[in-house]
Amino acid sequence: MMIYPTIVLKLFIGLAALVLVTRLLGKKRMSQVTPFDFVYALILGGTVEETIYHMDHTIPQMLFSIAVWGILIYTVEKLTQKFDVLRAPLKGTSQVLIKGGKVSISELERANLELEELRGMLRQKGVFSLKEVNYVFLENSGEISVLKFPDMPVIEEPSVLLVNDGKVHEGNLKEVGKNMEWLTESLNREGIHQIKDIYYAEWSKPEGFFVKKYEHCL
Fold it and tell me: Where is the YetF-like N-terminal transmembrane domain (predicted)?
């Protein structure tokens, strides 16, 4: 029956130790947490979990493991602050996904992001068309920072992605009640005769088309 009081004691001590180590390593909002921060927190929590549910792991062993892991992480944090050469591989760097209104295809691929995913992230920032965007930075935390073009008119209706990476998004085309014939004719009027040349084409009823060919991307 001593197993239950031991588990309770380990939980209390483990919680106190984790709070202490977290406070020593510094405060961060969840939006600021990098993949490196996530990994060290995961291992820190796993260390306590292993000790709680394995009776052969003692409290001093748990505290020792937490202390060693905390010291390692603290050392890495200080080294990355002092030496720029270590910051990029350990903490990562921000990426420019859109520069001067041009989407960087190579940076999107490096970030393992699809264009529709980026558009979803932009909508969460209150941006409903790529035509509004001057710069987009993907930060270390995975959040994006957006700089819009100045004096842009208010977008009355969210745009729909009809062409993505040279391919027609048939689901979205059907959603807006249009067909391939309408799309082809509309793009022809825009001076575009080959869909395969288009990286993306947005459309909304009040704004019409906003098209970027591959040659206009980075």
Answer: 6-78
